[in-house]
Every structure is written in structure tokens, then in C-alpha cells.
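Researcher: Last one for today. Full complex below.
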Amino acid sequence: MKKSKLLSFLQFKKGIALVLVLSFVSLAAMAQNITIKGKVTDSKGEAVINASIMVQGTTNGTVTDLDGNYSLTKVAPNAQLSFSYIGMKKQIVKVEGRTVINIVLVDDAEVLNEVVVTALGIKRQSRSLGYSTTKVGGEEFTLARDPNLGNALSGKVAGVSVAGNSTGPGGSSRVVIRGNASLTGNNMPLYVVDGVPFDNSNQGSAGTWGGLDMGDGLNNINADDVESIQVLKGAAASALYGYRGGNGAILITTKSGKKGKAMSVEVNNNLTFNAIYDQRDFQKVYGQGSDGQRPADKQAAIDSDRSNWGEAMDGGNAVNFLGQNYKYSYLDNFKKFYNTGVSNSSSIAISGSDEKVTYRFGVTNNYEKSILPNSNNSQIGMNMNTTYDIRKNLHFIMNANYVFEKSKGRSNLSDANGNTNAAILYHANSFDIRWMERGSETAQWGTTAAGKELLSGNSVYFNNPYWLQYRKTNDSRKNRLTGSMTLKWDITDWLYIQGATQRDGFNLEFKQVQPIGAAADPNGFMTEFQKTYYEMNYNFLLGFNKDFNDWSVGATFGGNKQINTSKTYYPTNGGRPFVVDGLWSVNNLDPSGARAQVDYSNYKVNSLYFTADLGWKKQLFLNITARRDWFSTLSKDNNGYTYPSVTGSWIFTDTFKTPEWFNFGKVRASWARASNGTSPYQNMMTFQVRNYKINGQYAVTANNDTYPNPLLKPVEISEKEIGLNLSFFQSRLNFDMAYYVKDTKDDIARVSISSTSGFSSRIMNIGKIQNKGFEFMVDGTPVKSENFMWNSTFNFALNDSKVKFLGDGVKRLAIEGATSNVGQVGVYNVLGSPYGEIIGYKYKRDTNGNLLLKDGMPQNNGEQVSLGNGVYKYTGGWQNTLKYKNITLAFLIDYKFGAKLFSGTNYSAYGAGLHKNTLLGRTADAPNQTYVFSGIDEATGQTNKTAVRASNYWGKITSENIAEEFTYDASFIKLRELSLGYEFPTSVLSKLKVVKSLNVSLVARNLWTIMKHTDNIDPEAAYNNSNGQGLELNGYPYSRNIGFNVNLKF
Amino acid sequence: MKKYIKNACAALFCLTAVTSCGDFGDTNIDPEHLNEGNVPYTMVFTNAQHQALGSDWDIWRTGMIYLSQWNQHIAAGGWWWSYGINSFSDGYASSYWGSVLSGGSRGAIRDIQTVIAKWKDDADMQQNYQIARIVRAYIFQKVTDLHGDIPYSQAGQPGEYPYPKYDKQQDIYTDLLKELDEAQANLGTGTASMGNQDLYYNGDVSKWKKFANSLMLRVAMRLSKVSPDKAKEYAAKAYSNGVITQTADNCRLDHSGGVTTNDSSEPYAKVIIHEDPGVAYINKTFFDVLKNANDPRIPLIMAVYPTAYDTKDVDPAIAENSAPEKQKGLIGFFSMGPSSSYSIKKYYPAEYTTEVLSTTSSANYYKKTHSQPNRSTYADPTGPTFVCTAAQTNLLLAEAAYRGWISGNAETFYNAGVRCAMEQFSQYPSSNAKGLYNTYLTSSAIDSYLAANPYTASKALEQINTQYWITCFCDEYETYANWRRSGYPNLQERCSAHDNWSTIGNYGPAIVRRMPYPASELQVNPDNYKAALSGLGLQSENDFNNTRVWWDVAK
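Model: Here's the assembly. Have a good evening.
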């Protein structure tokens, strides 16, 4: 039984192989010696100098000149030519009688023979690697770009899950590799830019009570500067990063000048228009009002500003909150309030080299105008990458990336208070948002004639959106410098030593002002802070590489000293009231207000590490690494930990003879241990001086609510991985597969303790979680002819997690801050469940699943239970590039399956009577009639006969917090990126003399949500990028970005 | 070779040796905060002592929204009313617990345990230590009086007891008496080294001794029904040790310079004039008791604010606002709807016509005509909070004497108690308060009040405890406890004008006699929580009615 199944599976596979072989059959050939000319270019159209062209099976060959041209005589018309260049994929072409053969050599993306950058910048042959790593070329980020480089990774790498949440312009991203390995700590990978560890922490995000997303580090990296991104997925790949390697690592290499190339200038402009991709499907039948009545007077209008329980809109008269008559019909306030956003990114880069120096300087200007009025984000970035050959064997390498970012008018997310998006979303169907522009002609935006916030209703927390965007302002500025200096001495051709000083740091200024007159804060308030962050790394590396007959031996030994400092000064954190109207400065605050305050954090880590590589006949490889980290954050006798890794790989296609079409096969296996570090000041109790005097005396109390732990140790993450790389048909069809098991133990968590102990939590090494997964990538070039090429890459990843231990008797651990503002929903880690369960109330039902109604109304089940999991289980993408002559069409479809999302927006839309479901029970003739909703009457056990009003029924679902109703399958398929480019032919450009290449593309991002299941919102609309995924409420509306990209090279 | 040396030097230029890997010195000591090594523990004591009295956080919720309405000191002219008729809110019911027994920046129990652990075995800190024990006893009595069995022996010690067990109230009371007795006995003489960090008495140990004994008397008298023998034993002991009998010795916390933007102000005042202005009105029950006895305290307790009835942080300080003839008690929450079954119209038909009620502004008429706590005294954010007064102590002594537990004349104690209750208004700092005091609470006014309302042995318990109820205004925790113990005054079980309010409250009409535990304890400390519930004879905590604490015996 089992055997026959296996057999049929094999046959099935064989069938597939046959089809693949057929589809790759090439054309035929003929005879007589000829001369062949042509040009060799790279995928960007640049000439490849010194590429070698050989007639297969002969010694006849040549190389290309400075313009990439070649000429080769005495070639048999039926010969095959091979085109090759270091780092590019070798191509074999049949001559077939042609005399002109132009070839585009593509980067050897399939990492078979190429050298790749691994942890700590150590370069290794791709074929020797015993773990999974994926490289994404910089060109994949430049066309249909996303301002946040993290978001731009979406769908491109198997096992890399990107949450492109609705955090607005300048917002952050969430990139998680191979699942969440830490219960409450950081789950994002280490980012390294040109060898410099790069802080990507979110500088502020929305939580239960709202907040702004202040962006992370990845929105400060300009796509035009990115040469490539190397994703080190597993612990083995990132083990050399020791305590920082537990979540994988993403190595970003910025562009540099190339040895042997003259100066060139590249100019790029990317302009997109970002229009709202409106996913609302609200009811448009009933308008403002309550009890089935339209507002007939001012007070009724004030009482019902976000209530759609009025009459069917008939275009007749109604009264608004200003007491004016208006036409009672549907209006789309999105169109009235939001603008079309604009993103423009222009860059210019100069690169080149001479004998001693290789350089590239790039300047980028990014400007993003939000869909919100009076809100934008701009960035100026400068990137420098230089190498000086002080001596032939002594190199000085200096990199620097400087970004100045300015942002204003970010909207609050989540909680409706202060949230512009919420203020637009819930106003009644017939309410014209422009009524709120100003109370009189001379009044300022969103204010009454008396200078107060103009409100449409009774709640001071349902704000005037114009007030929020024009009067309640927030501004931030960030200066960031990331750079390094490296001195490398090649002592011999097999031994080198290098030392480096590296720095990443930024200065962030933030100011938020709620002016006098705000409804909720009549006297106004303000918050202002300045944060200084920097990390310094000082390190050295001694490297050895030598071949001994069949053996290749490599070894490195190095050390690193890391210092991290963060200091935030608050001249005021919520200071109030203002003394004089109109001056929004801390100098104008009442002196008895909040005291200035400082947050400080400093830690150091010292490390020593080594690697040892052993290769036999370039087909069997063994790699061993170990790193020991000493942490300043742990107590003295307990502060050193070792992180080892062992990897092995075997290229069996070099050991056994395989058919020609099966050109490469590698099996690999690895094991490693890594960590996630610890934060400072968790070992000792600290105290705070209260910010007031009591009857003339000072008072001091505990500084925070978490009890310290002197015996804390770092979390331990260990991972086993096996994998397979296969290539067929001269690498035109490639597979990369991996299976891994990642175990986390001693995870640091804030464990709730009884608050009667005086603290609400204590910090402990408690958690155990396991992530298991499978990654699959197939890359193929099914069609490849002179004029037409189609490359297609599909990736798929499955990650399954299980929370295994949360402490004795602990079944649930809340993820900090992951509590919805509405619906009593939170995200928890639950023993035995996958990471991040959404917990809330369900309907009360009988055993057959019927709703149990009480007096005709629904009830909750009385107990908060799991509503599903907020973390996607299946992720992936499908990327296609089609080239016809000079035209390139590329598109990326990405998908995620297997997560749930609790939608607070839909919860609110029920209460407001906006959701389409709330139509049931209302009729146009009798909007306030009662209706018998289906279910079982709990009291009688019979079918419900009690009729209730629709507004009461649907409102009851929200007042009972039946979150089940608003928990959706968050799976989606999206057409994420699309570009259509035209490369001007050399024949045209040669007339322009100076222009070497010109490429014009039509680009689009987030063009089409092909599949989703969430009502009214985008499935990726979660309001923050914290660990507690699965909560949505009042985020930025999703937008579709369409525009142009022009690239010019001189 | 020379070249090699140069190269090597250059390479080392960027190479910083990794020095002594494991030694980071003081890197992990937060330089921006005090720590265990340099914190002045007397300031930690100050925080505990200050927060022991509660803050606007709990006084708004438990103290006023629930207790002041149940005690019928206050009637809500607004949204508090449904809690007055027993709507349940976990957060409101457990907020004193949250303020002092839980952590956070208030965390009085944690902080008092911290200083006790620090001072206990330090020979130089013995007076400070005894004082801390007294404060600890004061806090725990308040919490156990509200909730019954509570974490006591293991509370506030996170290192050893992250999940404290709940102790029986009986055991807690036994220990409180022991603690107070030991503390007062070991206080010695002079001034404790904490000096002015002691907000009650500036370290004057003789006064602390009196306070400790007064608390002992309070603790003892709480046992009058459940354990009269013990009550008698400790009441007598406290009396013979010496209690607070003079107004000058009142234990109080002044709030000079207090502002309502933080915890520096008097918490009841902060709620009344800042957090929720225009909601708390003098309850008709309370007003009638004062009015019927022609009580001279009326102008100092209350005032009407016809123009500034709900303005924040403002004291019009107009003496006439306090004129006794202008005062009016509010019966409870009204509906402004003219046709509602509890429409204000039913009670004030002349003032509240349908026409008046039809517009929002005139519907607030009652707010302008009914009395609120006086913004120059009880609602003055710079005024004192009374912790334990000569008035209270004398009245408790009167009851003890009446019961024959101590020698002495009950009437003498009673009269002294009433006199002290009046005299303590002299301790309000505002000039308006002083003016009112000099006008209305003259010695002769007090004499005539006592003459008109003389001590009567046959009504002694009612008289004593009604006076206690009056003098505890704005100490709603103590009012509530003594009312439950004594049964006086005989409060009508209504806090709203609603005709049929028993159907509105969650759990029926009776005044709730015990505050439930916070729901968070079920989540975090379930075993101990459940054991405590079963000790109270409860299956779950969805009861908000007639469960009584141990000393609250129904008889």
C-alpha cells in the first residue's frame, strides 16, 4: 500500500521532469567558418569589460573591450560559444549561423560558484555553505519601491515574513525570519549595513491607547544605494553574530565603485502617486440619525455625529451639527478629505576608480506627501563608499551613510482619540466632513470662531480631523550616520588581518503640540524629546585561506567590542498648561508642570570568535564557528556565553557522474546556537524621585513595575537545518529547499506576578518555544532566446510554532501592549499553541452552534478564548521578469495564509451602523422597526421569537465584546509590484553622445489585492509592528502607488 | 621587514584589543536613577506614608463613587449614580487595593515593606522602624476592612513571595494589635531620625505613640461585635497607654502648596474640584442630620456655587455661599427627562417645570442650588487629610466607656469628641475657612449645640456613631467601616431618586458590605485567590452584595 503510493509519486515526478526537459529543448544548428561580432552587457545594460568568449571545445577565444564589444574569427557556424565573466552566470550559445550575437550576462544569482558575503563580512564560496542564504539584488528595490526597505523584501525570500502594516509615511516594517523565537523580546533579525550593525528598532508605535509610528532604521536606507541584500536565515548562518544572531541577519551592501571602471554618473528618479485603495464596503442606505430618525435639529445632529441609525437617505432635508439644513444623501468623506499622496525619490551617484582609489558617492532626496493634509516625510541621504589602496597589499576602506529625515503630521493610530483616520472613518454617511473645516470664515483650521476645536458631537475624543492635521501638530527630525573605517592588510595571498571601527547612530528630535482650545485639553499640552543613540564597534579579524592539494583550509580569528548608548532628554513629557496662547514652546509652559526627564541606557558586549573551514576537492565542506560574548548587562560571575555552529555540505554532483542536464546538487546540514541578548539594568532595583513635593518633602518610590532578577541570563536559541540545492539545464532551473527546527529556551519574559507583591511582573528566564519550518524556492528561465527571456522565481515557506513552556502553572502570557482598544481582545502566548494567539469573546452558542439569544439579543460566551492566531503560517511570492528586446516587464505576486486578524474598525463600524451586516433588521420604510434575529432563545430553548431593533442587536454585539464577529481570515494574495520598462537602444543613445544608458519604466506597488477575506479593511492593516500581531484599528487607509522611474547613466 | 612593521602598526590603528572580557565595572548601574545603594530610605518611607492615605485614583473610584454615596455623605449630580446603586466595576471596587497594595508608583505597602526590611535589624533605625510598623498597620487595616481576608504576611515582598497567600482577617487583626502594641512600646522618646521626612509628626515619637494607641483603639473597637473580649482588652490597653485626645495631636497630612496636577494635593479635594467638578453634592440624608440638629458645622462643610458649580480648580471663597440658610441636600441622582420615573420634576415640581427641563443649560439649575463640599475646607487641595483625630478617638472612648470597657464617663468623652470634631476645622489653612470658623464655630456655638443635642444614655450608641459618621466626612473608608460595625446612622438604602432602583443595580438594593477582590488576582494568583474566596464561603467573586468581612457580624 505504502510502496505503491511511493511508486506513483515517483512516476508523477518523472512526468514532471519530462515536461521540463521538453520545454527546455533548444533549436538546431549548421556549418562554415564565420566571424562573429557583438556586445556583452550586464542586466543593467552596462558594458561588461574583459568578459571572455570561447568557442567550445577549442582554444579559440577573445575578450571584450572597454565598450563590451568583441569580435571572434574562425568560428564554425554550428559551434557553441561560451560567454563568461567573474561573478556572472556563464552562458553557452549556439551560433546557428549568426554573425552578430549580443549577450546579456546576468549576475550569478543562483549562488553556485559565486563568492557570497557571510556573517561578519567574511566572504565564502557559495558552494561551500552548509546553510540557507538568499541574495536579493539591489535592482529589485529600485523600481516598484517601498520607502521602507523592510517592506520591499515582501515576498522575495522564502521564510522571510514581512508585515506591511498601515503605519503611514515614514512608518516602520516588521520582518521576521523563520518565525518568532522570543515570547516577548525582539524577534527581528540583526541588520548589518556594509559590515556595520544597524539599529532597526521602532522609535515609537501605536498601542492600545494610540500613538504614532515613528519609523525604524530601514526607512533610512535608500534603495538606489543598495547593491544587494544577503539574508542569513538560520542560526547557523548568523552564529558568528553570537548573541545577536538568534533571529537571523540581513546584510545590506551598498553600491561601490568598481575597480577598472572610469567615472560614471547615474541619475534616477522615481515618482509615484499614491491614491487610496479604498477597501470600504459600508452600507450607503441609511444616513445620520438615531432611532430611525434623521437629525431634525442641531442637538439631534450633535448626538448622532457617528450614528448611522437614521432614515434611508432620500436627498431630502436634514439638519447638521451647526444647525444648518443639508441634503440627506450619501457622501464619501474619503474623497473630500484625503489627498492623493506623492512619493518622489531622486538620486544621483558618481562612481569610478583610478589606480589607488575606488569610490562611489550617492545623494538621494526622498519626499513623500501623505494622503493626509499637512503631512509629509522627507529624507536626504548621502552614501559614500571608498577604498584606498595605500599600498598594493594595504587597503583602507571607508563607508558612510548619512540621512537627514524630517517628518510632520503623522496621525495617531489605533485609539480614535487624536486619530485623524478614525475621525474620517466613522462620521455618518450623510455627514459632510468639510463642515468641520472651520467655524467661521476667519477661524483657523478645525476651530470655532472662538478658537476652540470645532466638534461635531459630544465626545471630546472623537476629534476634528482638520484640527488634528493643522493645529495639533507633530514634527520629528532624525540625523543618522552609519559608517566604518577598515584597514586591511593582505600579509600574504593566504593571510590577512584587518581592523575596523564602526559606528551607527542617530539623533531624533520630536515635538508634539496640542494647542490651547483642544476639546479634550482646553489648556493644551506638549511633549518634546531628543534622543541620541549610538553603537560603536571596534573589531579585528585575522584570516587565513590556503589550498593543500585536495584540501582547502580557511580559518579566521577575531574579536569585537561593542558599546551601545541611548539617551533621551525630555524638556517636557506632557507639560501643561500653556501660559500665553499661540506660543507652543516649553518656555511658555506653566512652571509647576512636568519636570524635565532623562532616559538612559548603556551596555557593552565583548566578544571573541573563530571559524574553521575545511574543504575536500571542492565537494565536501565542513565549517565550524564559535563565539563567546561577555555582557555588561549580566552579573559578573554569570556573564559569558558561547555560541557555536557546525555546518557541512556535500556537492554530490561532483562526486557522482550525473546526466548533463543535472548540473548541480548539494545537500547541507547545520546546527548552531545563538541568542537575543538582554537589556541593561534588569539586575538591580532602581528608584524614582516623585515629580512633586508633598507638604514640602520629597518622596521616592520604586522606579518601575518589574522586579529585577540578578541571575538573569540570555535566551538560548538553537537551530538544526538540513537543505538541498539542485540545478538543472545549465542552471536554468534551480531549486533550494530547507527544513529547520529552531528551539528557544530560557526566554526572557516579564512574568506576571500578583500585584500584591508590590510589582506587577518579574523578569525571568522562563519561556520555551519551538519553530519548525520548510522553505522552498524554485527559479527557472523557461524561455531564453535572443529577443525574449522569461525568468520566474517562486518561493514558499511554512513556519509552525509551538509555545512549550511559560513557567510553572502559567498557561497564558500577555504580549506586552498587545491589547486592542476596543472589543476586549488581546494577543497572548498560550501554552501548546502557536506564537501569538488572539484572545477574546465568542458568541454564546448551543451545542449545535446556534446563537443563544437572551431577550432576542446575542450574548458572549462568558470566557475569553482563542479566536485564532495572528501570525501567518504560510508565506511566499512569485516573481517574474519578462524581457522582449528592450522591454522588460516584471511583476511580483506575494501571498500569506494562515493568520487571523481582529478588526477594531469593523467593530466600530457595527456600533456606528456603517457595516453592511447592520442592514439586516432595517427596512427603508421602517428603519427603526423591530426584527426577530435568528437564534435560540436561551430561556425557552426554542427558536427566538423576541423582536428587537437592529441598532440594539448590532450594538449588543459590540457591547458584549463578541470579538469572534470581527475576527477575519487575514490570508491574501496581492499583486505587490509591477514594472514595465524600456531600455533605450544604444543606436538611439549614441546620438546623444554622453548618455550611456536610459531606462524608463512604469512602476506600480500594491496594485491589486487579488484575494482577501477582511471586510472594509486591508488584511495587512494592523496598526503596529510589535510582537502582538493580529490587531487592527483605525490605521492609514491602504494606498496604491503608481508612477514612473527614469534611470540615466552618463 | 620595515614595510611589514609599518603595515602592522597601521592595521592595529583600527584594532582595539578586547580587554579583560568579563569586567564591565559599573556599566550596568543606571546612572539616571537612584538604586538600592544610594536611595534615601526615609524618602521611600515618605512615599509610603503619603500614599497610605490613598490618592485621587482610589478616592475618586472606591472612596467617592462607591463609598461616599453608600455612606450617604454625597449624592451624585451626574454619572456616579449607577455605582451608588451597586453597578459593579472591578476597577472602581478595588482601587484602594490597587493604590496601596499593588505596585506602581504609589505602592505604599511595597515601599513600607522595603523600609521595614531595611530598618528592622539596624540598631540606629529603631525609631524609624517602629514608625514604619505603625503606618503599615494603618494601611493594612484599611485594606482588610474593605476586602476581608487579604495578602498580609506575604504582601509587598516580591523576592520571596511573588504570589502571596491571603491571610484570615481574624489573624490579621490579631497581628495588627500585636504590631501596634510592640511599636508603641518600643518607640522610646525624642525625635526619630527621619525628622521632617515624617509627614504626620516630623518624627515626634511621643505623638506617634499616641497615634499608635489611637489606632489600637480603632482596631480594637472594630471587634466590638465579633470579639468583645479582645475589643475590651485592647481598648483598655490603648486608653491606658495614652491616645490622641487633643485636637493639637490630630494625626493629619497637610498639603501646603498642593496642586491638582499631581499627587501633592488633598485627594478628596482634587476629585471634587479637579477630576470631576460639579458631580459631588451633599447628600440629603447627611444634610438633614446636620440641619435637624442645627449643626454649626454646616457652613464649614458645604457651600452652594451658583455660578461656578462645575469649574475646575476654582474656589470662589465667598462666605455667603456657605450661609446655612442657602444650603440644600440632594436626594440622589435625578433624570433630567421630564417624563422619567425618577425625574427631578417629581422632587422639585416648582423649580423644575417641563419648560426648564427642555433646555440643557437651565436643566443644570439644581447644580446651582444644591450644596457641594466646601471648596475652602474639605474641597481645598491645600487642606489637611485627617488620618486619626481626637474627635474620633474621644467618640470611640465614649463607646468603650458606655460599654464599660474603660473607666471614665461616656458623656464626658462624647462631649469632648463633639467639641474636637468642631475644633478640627481650625486646622484648615484658607482664610475663608478661618473666617467661617471664627464666625460659626465659636465656643458658645459649640456649647449651645451640645446643650440642644445632649448625650442621652439610652441612645448612646446611635449618638456616638452618628457623630463619628459626621466627623469622618471625607474619610469615607473609615466612615464605611464604622457604619458597618455599628449600624449607625440607620442609613436608608437609597442613593438615587430612582423609584425602583433595586432593579437597576447589579445585585439588589442593600448597601454592599464588602469590596470584591480585583479580577486580576484570579488571572495571576488564582490558587490563593480561590482559597480566599472559599474562606468567605464564595464560589466566585460575582457577588456584590451581602458578603460580610469577618468582624462585620449581622446582629
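Residues 1-31 of chain A have pLDDT under 50 and may be disordered. Chain A touches chain B through 77 residues (CB under 8 Å).
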